[in-house]
Amino acid sequence: MGETVYTKDHEWLVIVDGIATIGVTSFAREQLGDVVFVELPEIGALLTKGDEVAVIESVKAAGEINAPINGTVLEVNETLVDEPELLNSSPEEGGWMFKITLDEDSDISGLMNKAEYQNYIAVNA
Amino acid sequence: MFKAPDVKRTTFYDYHVEAGGKMVPFAGYLMPVQYPGGIMQEHLHARDKAGLFDVSHMGQVVVDGEGAAAALERLVPIDLEALAIGQQTYATFTSETGGILDDLIVTRWSETCFFLVVNAACKEQDIKHLREHLGDLEITELSGQSLLALQGPKAKDVVGELSPAANDLLFMNGCHTTIGGVECYVTRSGYTGEDGFEISVKNNGALAIADQLLSYDEVQWIGLGARDSLRLEAGLCLYGHDMDASKSPIEAGLNWSVSRSRREGGSKPGGFLGSDQILKHLADGVSKKRVGFLIEGRAPVREGAEIVDTQGNVVGVITSGGFGPTLQTPIAMGYVDAEFCAEGTKLDALVRGKNRAMTVVKMPMVPQRYFRG
Question: Which ipTM did the prediction report?
Fold first, then answer.
Protein backbone atom coordinates (compact mmCIF):
# COMPACT_ATOMS: atom_id res chain seq x y z
CA MET A 1 0.00 0.00 0.00
CA GLY A 2 1.51 3.29 -1.06
CA GLU A 3 1.43 6.43 0.98
CA THR A 4 -1.62 8.63 0.44
CA VAL A 5 -0.73 11.94 -1.20
CA TYR A 6 -2.89 15.01 -1.77
CA THR A 7 -3.46 17.83 -4.26
CA LYS A 8 -4.34 21.46 -3.66
CA ASP A 9 -7.69 20.66 -5.30
CA HIS A 10 -8.47 18.30 -2.41
CA GLU A 11 -7.98 15.03 -4.22
CA TRP A 12 -6.21 12.10 -2.64
CA LEU A 13 -4.07 9.58 -4.51
CA VAL A 14 -2.60 6.25 -3.56
CA ILE A 15 0.08 5.26 -6.08
CA VAL A 16 1.15 1.61 -6.24
CA ASP A 17 3.23 0.16 -9.08
CA GLY A 18 2.47 3.02 -11.45
CA ILE A 19 -1.30 2.92 -10.81
CA ALA A 20 -2.98 5.76 -8.92
CA THR A 21 -6.29 5.32 -7.12
CA ILE A 22 -7.94 8.74 -6.86
CA GLY A 23 -10.78 10.25 -4.87
CA VAL A 24 -11.75 13.40 -3.02
CA THR A 25 -10.84 14.17 0.57
CA SER A 26 -13.30 14.26 3.46
CA PHE A 27 -12.64 17.98 3.66
CA ALA A 28 -13.72 18.51 0.04
CA ARG A 29 -16.77 16.33 0.52
CA GLU A 30 -17.84 18.33 3.57
CA GLN A 31 -17.44 21.58 1.64
CA LEU A 32 -19.58 20.27 -1.20
CA GLY A 33 -22.38 18.87 0.98
CA ASP A 34 -24.51 15.77 0.43
CA VAL A 35 -23.40 14.06 -2.78
CA VAL A 36 -26.28 12.92 -5.00
CA PHE A 37 -24.59 12.13 -8.32
CA VAL A 38 -21.16 11.27 -9.65
CA GLU A 39 -20.07 11.44 -13.29
CA LEU A 40 -17.04 9.24 -13.92
CA PRO A 41 -14.58 9.20 -16.84
CA GLU A 42 -14.53 6.66 -19.66
CA ILE A 43 -12.13 3.78 -19.22
CA GLY A 44 -9.20 4.30 -21.57
CA ALA A 45 -9.50 8.09 -21.57
CA LEU A 46 -6.12 9.81 -21.87
CA LEU A 47 -5.71 12.47 -19.23
CA THR A 48 -3.42 15.45 -19.06
CA LYS A 49 -2.93 17.06 -15.68
CA GLY A 50 -5.69 19.65 -15.21
CA ASP A 51 -8.25 18.04 -17.54
CA GLU A 52 -11.77 17.84 -16.16
CA VAL A 53 -12.18 14.16 -15.53
CA ALA A 54 -15.18 13.71 -13.24
CA VAL A 55 -18.00 15.67 -11.63
CA ILE A 56 -19.51 15.38 -8.18
CA GLU A 57 -22.95 16.88 -7.73
CA SER A 58 -24.32 17.70 -4.31
CA VAL A 59 -27.84 18.85 -3.53
CA LYS A 60 -26.66 22.41 -3.97
CA ALA A 61 -23.81 22.50 -6.46
CA ALA A 62 -21.56 20.73 -8.93
CA GLY A 63 -17.87 20.22 -8.24
CA GLU A 64 -15.40 19.36 -10.99
CA ILE A 65 -12.56 16.94 -10.47
CA ASN A 66 -9.47 17.66 -12.53
CA ALA A 67 -6.85 15.09 -13.40
CA PRO A 68 -4.05 15.52 -10.85
CA ILE A 69 -1.47 13.82 -13.07
CA ASN A 70 -0.99 12.57 -16.63
CA GLY A 71 -2.20 9.04 -17.33
CA THR A 72 -4.85 6.72 -18.74
CA VAL A 73 -8.10 5.78 -16.99
CA LEU A 74 -7.84 2.11 -16.00
CA GLU A 75 -10.90 1.58 -13.85
CA VAL A 76 -13.80 3.54 -12.37
CA ASN A 77 -15.79 2.90 -9.20
CA GLU A 78 -19.08 1.81 -10.78
CA THR A 79 -20.69 1.46 -7.35
CA LEU A 80 -20.83 5.26 -7.16
CA VAL A 81 -23.17 5.43 -10.15
CA ASP A 82 -25.94 3.72 -8.19
CA GLU A 83 -24.78 4.65 -4.70
CA PRO A 84 -23.29 8.14 -4.88
CA GLU A 85 -23.99 8.45 -1.15
CA LEU A 86 -20.97 6.19 -0.62
CA LEU A 87 -18.97 9.34 -1.23
CA ASN A 88 -20.68 10.91 1.79
CA SER A 89 -19.97 8.07 4.17
CA SER A 90 -16.56 6.98 2.93
CA PRO A 91 -14.88 9.48 0.59
CA GLU A 92 -11.36 8.22 1.25
CA GLU A 93 -12.02 4.46 1.05
CA GLY A 94 -15.19 2.93 -0.46
CA GLY A 95 -15.85 6.21 -2.27
CA TRP A 96 -12.69 6.12 -4.42
CA MET A 97 -13.55 7.42 -7.88
CA PHE A 98 -11.16 6.14 -10.53
CA LYS A 99 -7.77 4.56 -11.14
CA ILE A 100 -5.28 5.71 -13.73
CA THR A 101 -2.15 4.21 -15.14
CA LEU A 102 0.50 6.88 -14.83
CA ASP A 103 2.41 8.03 -17.88
CA GLU A 104 6.11 7.37 -17.57
CA ASP A 105 6.79 11.08 -17.41
CA SER A 106 4.03 11.80 -14.86
CA ASP A 107 5.10 14.52 -12.50
CA ILE A 108 4.11 13.79 -8.92
CA SER A 109 6.47 16.27 -7.32
CA GLY A 110 3.77 18.82 -6.43
CA LEU A 111 1.74 16.44 -4.30
CA MET A 112 1.54 16.82 -0.52
CA ASN A 113 1.83 14.24 2.20
CA LYS A 114 -0.83 13.99 4.88
CA ALA A 115 0.79 16.45 7.29
CA GLU A 116 1.38 18.97 4.51
CA TYR A 117 -2.21 18.63 3.31
CA GLN A 118 -3.64 19.10 6.79
CA ASN A 119 -1.54 22.20 7.17
CA TYR A 120 -2.72 23.38 3.74
CA ILE A 121 -6.42 23.09 4.63
CA ALA A 122 -5.85 24.66 8.02
CA VAL A 123 -4.33 27.70 6.31
CA ASN A 124 -6.71 27.87 3.36
CA ALA A 125 -10.04 26.80 4.84
CA MET B 1 -13.48 32.91 1.02
CA PHE B 2 -14.54 36.35 -0.17
CA LYS B 3 -15.95 38.54 2.58
CA ALA B 4 -17.72 41.73 1.62
CA PRO B 5 -16.66 44.55 3.93
CA ASP B 6 -20.20 45.76 4.60
CA VAL B 7 -21.76 42.35 5.10
CA LYS B 8 -24.47 42.47 7.76
CA ARG B 9 -25.52 40.01 10.42
CA THR B 10 -29.00 39.21 11.63
CA THR B 11 -29.91 39.12 15.31
CA PHE B 12 -29.54 35.32 15.22
CA TYR B 13 -25.96 35.30 13.91
CA ASP B 14 -24.43 33.91 17.11
CA TYR B 15 -27.15 31.27 17.32
CA HIS B 16 -26.32 30.07 13.81
CA VAL B 17 -22.61 29.90 14.56
CA GLU B 18 -23.29 28.07 17.82
CA ALA B 19 -25.51 25.59 15.95
CA GLY B 20 -22.62 24.92 13.55
CA GLY B 21 -24.07 26.93 10.68
CA LYS B 22 -21.84 27.43 7.67
CA MET B 23 -22.14 31.18 7.18
CA VAL B 24 -22.00 32.61 3.66
CA PRO B 25 -22.65 36.08 2.26
CA PHE B 26 -26.13 36.27 0.77
CA ALA B 27 -27.85 39.46 -0.34
CA GLY B 28 -25.56 41.52 1.88
CA TYR B 29 -25.95 39.34 4.97
CA LEU B 30 -23.95 36.51 6.47
CA MET B 31 -26.49 33.71 6.46
CA PRO B 32 -26.36 29.99 7.29
CA VAL B 33 -26.37 27.93 4.08
CA GLN B 34 -26.46 24.73 6.09
CA TYR B 35 -25.83 23.28 9.54
CA PRO B 36 -23.94 20.07 10.41
CA GLY B 37 -26.99 17.93 9.53
CA GLY B 38 -26.61 18.95 5.89
CA ILE B 39 -29.13 20.08 3.30
CA MET B 40 -30.65 16.63 2.80
CA GLN B 41 -31.32 16.05 6.50
CA GLU B 42 -32.56 19.61 7.02
CA HIS B 43 -34.90 19.39 4.06
CA LEU B 44 -36.44 16.13 5.28
CA HIS B 45 -36.71 17.52 8.80
CA ALA B 46 -38.80 20.43 7.56
CA ARG B 47 -41.06 18.02 5.63
CA ASP B 48 -41.46 15.68 8.64
CA LYS B 49 -41.25 17.88 11.71
CA ALA B 50 -40.69 21.62 12.10
CA GLY B 51 -37.85 23.62 10.61
CA LEU B 52 -36.85 27.05 11.90
CA PHE B 53 -35.58 29.53 9.32
CA ASP B 54 -33.98 32.90 9.96
CA VAL B 55 -35.33 35.09 7.17
CA SER B 56 -34.50 38.38 8.86
CA HIS B 57 -32.51 39.46 5.80
CA MET B 58 -35.80 39.96 3.97
CA GLY B 59 -37.27 43.43 3.80
CA GLN B 60 -40.20 44.27 6.06
CA VAL B 61 -41.91 47.45 4.99
CA VAL B 62 -45.04 49.22 6.21
CA VAL B 63 -47.05 51.38 3.81
CA ASP B 64 -49.49 53.60 5.64
CA GLY B 65 -51.81 56.44 4.77
CA GLU B 66 -55.19 57.46 3.44
CA GLY B 67 -55.92 55.64 0.19
CA ALA B 68 -53.03 53.19 0.60
CA ALA B 69 -54.95 50.30 -0.96
CA ALA B 70 -55.80 52.17 -4.13
CA ALA B 71 -52.31 53.66 -4.35
CA LEU B 72 -50.56 50.30 -3.96
CA GLU B 73 -52.85 48.88 -6.61
CA ARG B 74 -50.93 51.02 -9.11
CA LEU B 75 -47.86 48.87 -8.39
CA VAL B 76 -49.33 45.36 -7.98
CA PRO B 77 -52.00 43.59 -10.07
CA ILE B 78 -53.98 42.73 -6.97
CA ASP B 79 -57.35 43.76 -5.58
CA LEU B 80 -55.98 45.13 -2.33
CA GLU B 81 -59.21 46.97 -1.52
CA ALA B 82 -60.88 43.56 -1.28
CA LEU B 83 -58.24 42.24 1.12
CA ALA B 84 -59.68 41.83 4.63
CA ILE B 85 -57.76 43.12 7.63
CA GLY B 86 -55.38 40.36 8.74
CA GLN B 87 -55.48 38.72 5.33
CA GLN B 88 -52.43 38.49 3.09
CA THR B 89 -51.72 37.80 -0.55
CA TYR B 90 -48.85 37.00 -2.86
CA ALA B 91 -48.06 39.81 -5.30
CA THR B 92 -45.53 41.02 -7.83
CA PHE B 93 -44.25 44.56 -8.28
CA THR B 94 -44.66 44.95 -12.01
CA SER B 95 -42.52 47.17 -14.22
CA GLU B 96 -43.69 49.68 -16.82
CA THR B 97 -42.93 47.10 -19.51
CA GLY B 98 -44.84 44.34 -17.72
CA GLY B 99 -41.85 42.59 -16.15
CA ILE B 100 -41.44 41.61 -12.50
CA LEU B 101 -39.39 43.93 -10.28
CA ASP B 102 -39.80 41.73 -7.20
CA ASP B 103 -42.29 39.37 -5.61
CA LEU B 104 -43.70 39.94 -2.18
CA ILE B 105 -46.34 39.13 0.40
CA VAL B 106 -48.75 41.92 1.28
CA THR B 107 -50.74 41.78 4.53
CA ARG B 108 -53.46 44.23 5.39
CA TRP B 109 -52.91 45.54 8.90
CA SER B 110 -55.73 48.09 8.90
CA GLU B 111 -57.96 50.06 6.55
CA THR B 112 -55.02 52.26 5.58
CA CYS B 113 -51.98 50.22 6.52
CA PHE B 114 -50.23 47.39 4.66
CA PHE B 115 -47.28 45.23 5.73
CA LEU B 116 -44.99 44.07 2.93
CA VAL B 117 -42.33 41.37 3.02
CA VAL B 118 -39.95 41.67 0.06
CA ASN B 119 -36.78 39.94 -1.11
CA ALA B 120 -33.54 40.85 0.64
CA ALA B 121 -31.68 41.57 -2.58
CA CYS B 122 -34.44 43.88 -3.84
CA LYS B 123 -35.47 45.71 -0.70
CA GLU B 124 -33.58 48.96 -1.27
CA GLN B 125 -34.82 49.18 -4.82
CA ASP B 126 -38.37 48.29 -3.71
CA ILE B 127 -38.44 51.00 -1.09
CA LYS B 128 -37.18 53.52 -3.64
CA HIS B 129 -39.87 52.33 -6.03
CA LEU B 130 -42.57 52.71 -3.37
CA ARG B 131 -41.39 56.21 -2.43
CA GLU B 132 -41.22 57.30 -6.06
CA HIS B 133 -44.73 56.17 -6.86
CA LEU B 134 -46.49 56.59 -3.52
CA GLY B 135 -45.14 59.97 -2.39
CA ASP B 136 -48.17 60.78 -0.24
CA LEU B 137 -47.91 57.64 1.85
CA GLU B 138 -45.66 56.87 4.76
CA ILE B 139 -43.17 54.16 3.75
CA THR B 140 -41.27 52.68 6.70
CA GLU B 141 -38.74 49.91 6.63
CA LEU B 142 -38.93 47.86 9.83
CA SER B 143 -35.16 47.57 10.00
CA GLY B 144 -35.23 46.78 13.72
CA GLN B 145 -37.45 43.79 13.14
CA SER B 146 -36.44 40.13 12.72
CA LEU B 147 -38.35 37.51 10.78
CA LEU B 148 -38.49 33.80 11.61
CA ALA B 149 -40.31 31.05 9.76
CA LEU B 150 -41.39 27.80 11.37
CA GLN B 151 -42.33 25.30 8.69
CA GLY B 152 -43.48 21.71 8.67
CA PRO B 153 -46.28 19.44 9.90
CA LYS B 154 -45.28 19.85 13.57
CA ALA B 155 -45.19 23.66 13.40
CA LYS B 156 -48.83 23.90 14.42
CA ASP B 157 -48.24 21.80 17.54
CA VAL B 158 -45.46 24.11 18.66
CA VAL B 159 -47.25 27.35 17.81
CA GLY B 160 -50.48 25.90 19.18
CA GLU B 161 -48.93 25.73 22.62
CA LEU B 162 -47.16 29.06 22.46
CA SER B 163 -49.89 31.10 20.79
CA PRO B 164 -53.32 29.49 20.42
CA ALA B 165 -54.50 32.61 18.54
CA ALA B 166 -51.86 32.09 15.85
CA ASN B 167 -52.72 28.43 15.62
CA ASP B 168 -56.32 29.29 14.70
CA LEU B 169 -55.12 31.19 11.62
CA LEU B 170 -55.87 29.86 8.16
CA PHE B 171 -53.28 29.92 5.38
CA MET B 172 -52.44 33.49 4.29
CA ASN B 173 -53.83 35.16 7.40
CA GLY B 174 -52.06 36.87 10.27
CA CYS B 175 -52.61 38.28 13.73
CA HIS B 176 -50.85 40.26 16.43
CA THR B 177 -50.12 37.94 19.33
CA THR B 178 -47.49 37.09 21.93
CA ILE B 179 -45.13 34.15 22.18
CA GLY B 180 -43.74 33.66 25.68
CA GLY B 181 -44.79 37.20 26.53
CA VAL B 182 -43.04 38.72 23.50
CA GLU B 183 -45.25 40.70 21.13
CA CYS B 184 -45.07 39.64 17.52
CA TYR B 185 -47.01 39.44 14.28
CA VAL B 186 -47.62 35.88 13.12
CA THR B 187 -48.87 34.80 9.72
CA ARG B 188 -49.75 31.34 8.46
CA SER B 189 -47.49 31.32 5.44
CA GLY B 190 -44.08 30.28 4.22
CA TYR B 191 -41.86 29.25 1.35
CA THR B 192 -41.65 25.48 1.69
CA GLY B 193 -45.08 24.20 0.61
CA GLU B 194 -45.68 23.02 4.17
CA ASP B 195 -48.09 24.31 6.75
CA GLY B 196 -46.23 26.85 8.85
CA PHE B 197 -45.87 30.31 10.26
CA GLU B 198 -43.82 33.44 9.83
CA ILE B 199 -43.11 35.50 12.91
CA SER B 200 -42.17 39.15 12.70
CA VAL B 201 -40.71 40.39 15.98
CA LYS B 202 -38.65 43.32 17.23
CA ASN B 203 -34.96 42.45 17.42
CA ASN B 204 -34.90 42.80 21.20
CA GLY B 205 -37.48 40.03 21.59
CA ALA B 206 -36.32 37.85 18.72
CA LEU B 207 -33.87 35.63 20.61
CA ALA B 208 -36.47 34.94 23.31
CA ILE B 209 -38.90 33.69 20.67
CA ALA B 210 -36.22 31.56 19.01
CA ASP B 211 -35.38 30.08 22.44
CA GLN B 212 -39.04 29.19 22.95
CA LEU B 213 -39.31 27.51 19.55
CA LEU B 214 -35.97 25.70 19.84
CA SER B 215 -36.95 24.28 23.24
CA TYR B 216 -39.13 21.77 21.34
CA ASP B 217 -37.37 18.59 20.23
CA GLU B 218 -39.05 18.68 16.83
CA VAL B 219 -37.69 22.16 16.01
CA GLN B 220 -34.32 22.52 14.28
CA TRP B 221 -32.58 25.36 12.41
CA ILE B 222 -32.73 25.01 8.62
CA GLY B 223 -30.32 26.83 6.30
CA LEU B 224 -30.68 28.55 2.94
CA GLY B 225 -29.67 25.40 1.05
CA ALA B 226 -32.67 23.41 2.22
CA ARG B 227 -34.87 26.49 1.91
CA ASP B 228 -34.02 26.44 -1.79
CA SER B 229 -34.67 22.72 -2.31
CA LEU B 230 -37.94 22.94 -0.34
CA ARG B 231 -39.27 25.84 -2.38
CA LEU B 232 -38.20 24.19 -5.63
CA GLU B 233 -40.14 21.02 -4.80
CA ALA B 234 -43.09 23.26 -3.88
CA GLY B 235 -42.91 24.88 -7.33
CA LEU B 236 -42.27 28.34 -5.86
CA CYS B 237 -40.27 30.91 -7.81
CA LEU B 238 -37.01 32.43 -6.66
CA TYR B 239 -36.70 36.06 -7.73
CA GLY B 240 -33.68 36.76 -9.93
CA HIS B 241 -33.71 33.18 -11.17
CA ASP B 242 -37.22 32.01 -12.09
CA MET B 243 -38.51 35.52 -12.62
CA ASP B 244 -37.05 38.95 -13.25
CA ALA B 245 -37.73 42.21 -15.04
CA SER B 246 -37.62 40.45 -18.42
CA LYS B 247 -40.53 38.12 -17.58
CA SER B 248 -44.16 39.00 -17.07
CA PRO B 249 -46.20 37.33 -14.32
CA ILE B 250 -48.03 35.46 -17.08
CA GLU B 251 -44.80 34.11 -18.59
CA ALA B 252 -43.79 33.13 -15.05
CA GLY B 253 -46.99 31.07 -14.79
CA LEU B 254 -48.37 33.33 -12.08
CA ASN B 255 -51.70 34.10 -13.78
CA TRP B 256 -53.41 33.44 -10.44
CA SER B 257 -51.49 36.38 -8.97
CA VAL B 258 -53.46 38.81 -11.16
CA SER B 259 -56.77 39.44 -9.38
CA ARG B 260 -59.96 38.88 -11.41
CA SER B 261 -61.08 42.45 -10.87
CA ARG B 262 -57.82 43.77 -12.38
CA ARG B 263 -58.27 41.82 -15.63
CA GLU B 264 -60.23 42.66 -18.78
CA GLY B 265 -63.91 42.47 -17.89
CA GLY B 266 -63.20 42.97 -14.20
CA SER B 267 -64.54 45.84 -12.09
CA LYS B 268 -61.27 47.83 -12.28
CA PRO B 269 -59.22 46.38 -15.13
CA GLY B 270 -55.58 47.40 -15.57
CA GLY B 271 -54.30 50.53 -13.90
CA PHE B 272 -51.07 48.99 -12.64
CA LEU B 273 -47.58 49.40 -14.07
CA GLY B 274 -47.21 47.38 -17.25
CA SER B 275 -50.89 46.44 -17.25
CA ASP B 276 -51.25 46.83 -21.02
CA GLN B 277 -48.58 44.23 -21.65
CA ILE B 278 -49.68 41.90 -18.86
CA LEU B 279 -53.36 41.94 -19.84
CA LYS B 280 -52.31 41.35 -23.43
CA HIS B 281 -50.33 38.31 -22.28
CA LEU B 282 -53.42 37.08 -20.40
CA ALA B 283 -55.67 37.58 -23.42
CA ASP B 284 -53.38 36.39 -26.23
CA GLY B 285 -51.15 33.91 -24.41
CA VAL B 286 -47.38 34.02 -24.22
CA SER B 287 -44.61 32.70 -26.44
CA LYS B 288 -42.59 31.24 -23.56
CA LYS B 289 -43.58 30.06 -20.14
CA ARG B 290 -42.21 28.69 -16.87
CA VAL B 291 -42.74 24.97 -16.35
CA GLY B 292 -41.50 22.28 -13.97
CA PHE B 293 -39.37 19.28 -14.92
CA LEU B 294 -38.73 15.84 -13.53
CA ILE B 295 -35.27 14.70 -14.63
CA GLU B 296 -34.54 11.09 -15.55
CA GLY B 297 -31.55 9.50 -13.85
CA ARG B 298 -29.67 11.06 -10.97
CA ALA B 299 -27.74 13.91 -12.55
CA PRO B 300 -29.03 17.31 -11.40
CA VAL B 301 -29.78 19.85 -14.09
CA ARG B 302 -28.92 23.34 -12.92
CA GLU B 303 -29.69 26.96 -13.69
CA GLY B 304 -28.42 28.02 -17.09
CA ALA B 305 -28.65 24.62 -18.77
CA GLU B 306 -30.10 24.82 -22.27
CA ILE B 307 -33.28 22.91 -23.03
CA VAL B 308 -33.50 21.18 -26.43
CA ASP B 309 -36.28 19.35 -28.26
CA THR B 310 -35.92 15.92 -29.84
CA GLN B 311 -34.40 17.53 -32.96
CA GLY B 312 -31.79 19.28 -30.88
CA ASN B 313 -33.24 22.78 -31.29
CA VAL B 314 -32.78 25.02 -28.27
CA VAL B 315 -36.30 25.71 -26.97
CA GLY B 316 -35.62 27.07 -23.50
CA VAL B 317 -33.39 27.40 -20.47
CA ILE B 318 -33.37 26.04 -16.93
CA THR B 319 -33.76 28.75 -14.27
CA SER B 320 -33.62 26.61 -11.09
CA GLY B 321 -32.61 23.04 -10.64
CA GLY B 322 -31.25 20.62 -8.13
CA PHE B 323 -31.88 17.41 -6.32
CA GLY B 324 -35.26 17.07 -4.62
CA PRO B 325 -34.60 15.32 -1.30
CA THR B 326 -38.27 14.43 -0.75
CA LEU B 327 -38.67 13.04 -4.26
CA GLN B 328 -35.15 11.57 -4.29
CA THR B 329 -34.73 12.67 -7.87
CA PRO B 330 -33.44 15.76 -9.65
CA ILE B 331 -36.04 18.41 -10.45
CA ALA B 332 -35.93 21.76 -12.17
CA MET B 333 -37.93 24.65 -13.53
CA GLY B 334 -37.29 26.70 -16.59
CA TYR B 335 -38.74 28.64 -19.48
CA VAL B 336 -39.69 26.92 -22.71
CA ASP B 337 -41.41 27.95 -25.93
CA ALA B 338 -45.19 27.73 -25.53
CA GLU B 339 -45.58 24.68 -27.76
CA PHE B 340 -43.52 22.61 -25.29
CA CYS B 341 -45.39 23.62 -22.11
CA ALA B 342 -47.86 20.75 -21.97
CA GLU B 343 -47.53 18.27 -19.13
CA GLY B 344 -45.82 15.10 -20.27
CA THR B 345 -43.73 16.81 -22.98
CA LYS B 346 -40.35 15.09 -23.31
CA LEU B 347 -37.35 17.39 -23.63
CA ASP B 348 -33.64 17.22 -22.92
CA ALA B 349 -31.38 19.49 -20.93
CA LEU B 350 -27.74 19.87 -21.95
CA VAL B 351 -25.41 19.25 -19.04
CA ARG B 352 -21.67 19.31 -19.75
CA GLY B 353 -22.32 18.30 -23.34
CA LYS B 354 -24.60 15.39 -22.44
CA ASN B 355 -28.34 15.20 -23.02
CA ARG B 356 -30.36 14.58 -19.89
CA ALA B 357 -33.92 13.43 -20.54
CA MET B 358 -36.71 15.18 -18.67
CA THR B 359 -40.47 15.54 -18.68
CA VAL B 360 -42.65 18.60 -18.16
CA VAL B 361 -44.60 18.03 -14.95
CA LYS B 362 -47.29 19.82 -13.03
CA MET B 363 -46.07 22.02 -10.19
CA PRO B 364 -45.80 21.70 -7.27
CA MET B 365 -43.76 18.54 -7.58
CA VAL B 366 -44.42 17.82 -3.88
CA PRO B 367 -48.04 18.48 -2.84
CA GLN B 368 -48.52 21.65 -0.83
CA ARG B 369 -49.95 21.11 2.64
CA TYR B 370 -51.24 24.55 3.52
CA PHE B 371 -53.81 24.81 6.30
CA ARG B 372 -57.03 26.07 4.82
CA GLY B 373 -59.33 24.87 7.62
Answer: 0.83
